[in-house]
């Protein structure tokens, strides 16, 4: 019996020939990550453990992206604590201020994660890096502390399920639409404790940005990680960025999968997910006309260049509907700069959009776009739980950047074709 | 043996319900506890009594990796959460923070406010006049609990190194 790439990466980091699903292993870590809301608890545990150093100051990443620029005094105090920790322990990859981007867009972009890596992050969307052919998963602050000190952590080897996607993509349909469709298909616990592997010609046709979006939302199906085969596009993306040597792992043809789903993307429309679960996915045509108060285009899910480009193409020469706030959040300083030089900002400003600095901000109802009672947003973020973006009686409809931009123009959920 | 009054929560109780993100700048468990379950039961922290038990449906604790979630529940004196199934990050976090979880199908046999009994070591739960056996806690995690959680385990490891 062969192994999946997830199993191979875990085995390689455990010093074993092979690992089996269900096995408990202690694996070596290549990188650990925490942010301004998970690091404070982690640093408290660091003190309690009596540690004198982190396992490797170059492999501990701290990103102050959630409640920044500091939204209130408590957030500012937390950032101050983390800043002092970074200085004391010589953390080289400490990101704040003008260097700061949304962690899961920033780390791949800066070449901090490379193919074959084993990464943990105290943030559930750490699964994003599977798009690079790495094993990466979200953990809590205490597990992160252990990893940060020891450079290793225990894992239960997950079973794998595979999604073989074929067919030709329709215009305005991208990674977000596929992952919403898949979560709709299998449910929010359809991949609980498992590895989701994405393969097939339709996946090969996708950009790295779209692949990062898909891997990002594996957690919304309950998965431990999402993972993609490393191909020419991956290697092209990694070239010139990678800060460390990397290793390519590939699933064996006779690897075991608990289940294999075959999906033809040819008939896939842009998708939206209605409140209050990401699994409430519907083709946008079935939801047209639902009024919105706000559109958010950004986040670790969809704040990358492909998303900003789609939004700019749709908003070009148009106006955001009266009474609608359209907030655009480029995910990193590099993305911000490129969007600016490509002229997207002029398009956005002419259309009446708000351009935010990189921050997780409204995605989790933190700041920069919190909803009032009874308000509804269309958002390119990843969760539409009760009260996620603000008041417990507000609503979030999840979508890709194209639908969010089109909806901002119409003031109601719309297919991009309706405004072009 | 734990014995307590039941608070029922359904399927897919996410971490934004357990502790909304707007409170995540807090790190004090007691302060977090004050906002526990707020979107669903606005004054939960006032109504709940020490020793009460949360019974959930499937996929309890789905969503974010925030450890603030098990901290908030434990801060209210809730000794155990029993659910049909748990999201994986929440599962690890709860044990790491000293909040035991039992995976058992109790939700459909108990009514809100009823008394349930749960025994961690045997996994036996007495609820709604029935005796239900919870899925065994993995031996590896039982060992962690015996050592007093992951950080105590770590202190031991670091101490041995010296």
Account of the protein in words:
The complex is a heterodimer of chains A (420) and B (162). With 420 residues, chain A is an alpha/beta fold. Chain A has 14 helices and 18 strands. In chain A, strands 13-12-18-17-14-15-16 form a 7-stranded mixed beta sheet, sandwiched between helices. The mean pLDDT of chain A is 98. In chain B, 31% of the residues lie in helices and 18% in strands. Chain B contains 7 helices and 7 strands; from the N terminus they run E-H-H-H-E-H-E-H-E-E-E-E-H-H. Chain B is globular. Classes of the chains: A alpha/beta (420), B alpha/beta (162). At the A-B interface, helix 2, helix 3 and helix 5 of A face helix 5 and helix 7 of B.
Could you tell me the mean pLDDT of chain B?
A: 94
Shape of chain A: globular
Residues in helices of chain B, as a percent range: 25-40%
Termini separation of chain A comes to 52 Å
Poorly predicted ranges of chain A (pLDDT <50, ≥5 residues)?
Answer: none
Sketch the major β-sheet of chain B: 7 strands, mixed
Number of helical regions of chain B = 7
The sequence of SSEs of chain B as H and E is EHHHEHEHEEEEHH
Q: How many alpha or pi helices of chain A?
A: 14
So, CATH architecture of chain B? Alpha-Beta Barrel
Q: How many separate domains of chain A?
A: 2
Summarize the structure.
With 420 residues, chain A is an alpha/beta fold. Chain A has helices spanning 5-12, 39-49, 73-88, 103-109, 141-150, 175-186, 201-204, 208-216, 232-238, 299-302, 305-315, 333-341, 344-351, 401-410; strands spanning 24-28, 31-35, 60-63, 93-95, 118-121, 135-138, 152-156, 160-166, 195-199, 225-228, 259-264, 271-273, 281-283, 294-297, 325-328, 354-355, 376-379, 395-399.
């Amino acid at each position: 019996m062969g192994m999946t790439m997830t199993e191979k990466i875990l085995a390689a980091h455990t010093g074993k020939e092979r690992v089996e699903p269900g096995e408990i292993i202690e694996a070596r870590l290549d990188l650990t990550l925490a942010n301004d809301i998970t690091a404070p608890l982690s640093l408290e545990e660091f003190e309690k453990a009596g540690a004198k150093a982190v396992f490797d100051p170059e492999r501990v990443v701290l990103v102050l992206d959630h409640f920044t620029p500091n939204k209130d005094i408590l957030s500012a105090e937390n950032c101050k604590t983390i800043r002092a920790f970074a200085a004391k322990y010589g953390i080289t990859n400490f990101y704040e201020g003008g260097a700061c981007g949304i962690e899961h867009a920033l780390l791949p972009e800066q070449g901090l994660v490379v193919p074959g890596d084993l990464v943990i992050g105290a943030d559930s969307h750490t699964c994003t890096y599977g798009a690079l052919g790495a094993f990466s998963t979200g953990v809590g602050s205490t597990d992160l502390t252990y990893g940060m000190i020891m450079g290793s952590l225990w894992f239960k080897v997950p079973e794998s399920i595979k999604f073989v996607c074929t067919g030709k993509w329709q215009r305005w349909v991208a990674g977000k639409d596929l992952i919403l469709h898949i979560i709709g298909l299998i449910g929010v616990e359809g991949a609980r404790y498992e590895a989701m592997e994405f393969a097939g010609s339709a996946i090969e046709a996708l950009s790295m940005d779209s692949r990062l979006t898909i891997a990002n939302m594996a957690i919304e199906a309950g998965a431990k990680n999402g993972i993609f085969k490393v191909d020419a596009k991956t290697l092209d993306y990694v070239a010139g960025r990678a800060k460390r040597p990397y290793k390519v792992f590939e699933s064996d043809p006779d690897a075991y999968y608990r289940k294999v789903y075959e999906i033809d993307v040819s008939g896939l429309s842009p998708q939206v997910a209605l409140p209050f679960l990401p699994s409430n996915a519907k083709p946008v045509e079935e939801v047209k006309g639902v009024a919105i108060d706000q559109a958010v285009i950004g986040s670790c899910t969809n704040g990358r260049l492909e998303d900003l480009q789609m939004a700019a193409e749709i908003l070009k020469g148009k106006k955001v509907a009266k009474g609608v706030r359209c907030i655009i959040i480029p995910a990193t300083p590099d993305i911000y700069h490129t969007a600016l030089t490509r002229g997207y900002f002029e398009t956005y400003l002419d259309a009446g959009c708000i351009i935010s600095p990189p921050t997780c901000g409204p995605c989790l109802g933190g700041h920069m776009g919190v909803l009032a009672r009874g308000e509804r947003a269309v958002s390119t973020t990843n969760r539409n739980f009760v009260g996620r973006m603000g008041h417990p009686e507000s609503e979030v409809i999840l979508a890709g950047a194209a639908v969010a931009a089109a909806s901002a123009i119409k003031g109601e959920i719309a297919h991009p074709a309706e405004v072009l | 043996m734990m014995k307590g009054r039941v608070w029922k929560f359904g399927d897919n109780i996410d971490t934004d319900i357990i502790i909304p993100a707007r409170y995540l700048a807090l790190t004090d468990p007691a302060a977090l506890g004050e906002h526990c379950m707020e979107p669903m039961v606005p004054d939960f922290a006032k109504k709940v009594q020490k020793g009460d038990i949360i019974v959930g449906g499937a996929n309890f604790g789905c969503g974010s990796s925030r450890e603030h979630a098990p901290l908030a529940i434990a801060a209210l004196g809730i000794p155990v959460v029993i659910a049909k199934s748990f999201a994986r990050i929440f599962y690890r976090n709860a044990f790491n923070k000293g909040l035991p979880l039992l995976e058992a199908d109790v939700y459909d046999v108990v009514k809100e406010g009823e008394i349930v009994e749960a025994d961690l070591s045997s996994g036996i739960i007495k609820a709604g006049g029935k005796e239900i056996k919870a899925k065994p806690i993995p031996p590896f995690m039982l060992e962690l609990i015996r050592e007093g959680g992951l950080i105590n385990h770590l202190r031991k490891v670091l101490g041995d190194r010296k």
